[in-house]
């Protein structure tokens, strides 16, 4: 009986580990249109999306405006989010080239995020600090972005705590110009 439980546990562990994403940014190298952050994230943009809990249930909706510009190769994205409950949030990203991608910083990002670009995709990993029930909470965020055409970018973010998925964000970003 004891061996059966060990086998069941190991089978479950192998299943969980094998279900983890193995997608890499290089999987999109041949896709087009080629995503160039300096071109797409330039000017006035709008974003529209949803936040989901770990079960996939939509818990909040938002619209955002983004003012994006570049100076000496360094990008700035000034974001203003308005949620369906009336909350307004601001985030200002700074994107600094680092070879294949960018270092990404913002006021509520712990340390420096790393962004990689290939083909029509950009992948960004960072730790975001949010307020949760009156206390700060740090979440690991894995952002995937795919440029659909010269005016539309799809974004999917997975939010994790201690390696467990606690939520996700899905949004579309549209160039206003």
Strand and helix layout:
Elements: H1 2-18, H2 37-40, E1 43-53, E2 58-71, E3 74-83, E4 88-97, E5 101-105, E6 109-118, E7 121-132, E8 135-149, E9 152-161, E10 164-175
Antiparallel strand pairs: 1-2, 1-10, 2-3, 3-4, 4-5, 5-6, 6-7, 7-8, 8-9, 9-10
Task: Please outline what is shown here.
The chain has a single domain (34-175), classed as Lipocalin. It has 2 helices and 10 strands, in the order H-H-E-E-E-E-E-E-E-E-E-E. It has helices at 2-18, 37-40; strands at 43-53, 58-71, 74-83, 88-97, 101-105, 109-118, 121-132, 135-149, 152-161, 164-175.
Polypeptide structure, described:
The protein starts with a helix and ends with a strand. The chain is mainly β and 177 residues long. The protein has helices at 2-18, 37-40, and strands at 43-53, 58-71, 74-83, 88-97, 101-105, 109-118, 121-132, 135-149, 152-161, 164-175. The chain is built from two helices and ten strands, in the order H-H-E-E-E-E-E-E-E-E-E-E. The model has no long low-confidence stretch (mean pLDDT 91).
């Amino acid at each position: 009986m004891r061996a059966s439980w060990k086998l069941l546990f190991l089978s479950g562990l192998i299943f969980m580990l094998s279900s983890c994403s193995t997608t890499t940014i290089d999987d999109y190298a041949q896709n087009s249109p080629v995503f160039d952050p300096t071109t797409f994230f330039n000017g006035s943009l709008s974003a529209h999306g949803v936040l989901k809990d770990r079960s996939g249930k939509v818990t909040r909706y938002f619209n955002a405006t983004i003012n994006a510009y570049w100076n000496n190769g360094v990008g700035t994205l000034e974001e203003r989010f308005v949620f369906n409950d009336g909350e307004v949030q601001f985030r200002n990203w700074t994107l600094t080239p680092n070879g294949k991608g960018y270092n990404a910083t913002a006021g509520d990002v712990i340390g420096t995020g790393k962004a990689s670009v290939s083909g029509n995709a950009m992948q960004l990993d960072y730790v975001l600090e949010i307020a949760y029930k009156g206390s700060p909470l740090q979440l690991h965020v894995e952002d995937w972005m795919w440029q659909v055409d010269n005016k539309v970018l799809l974004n999917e973010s997975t939010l994790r705590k201690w390696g467990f998925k606690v939520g996700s964000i899905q949004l579309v970003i549209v160039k206003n110009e």
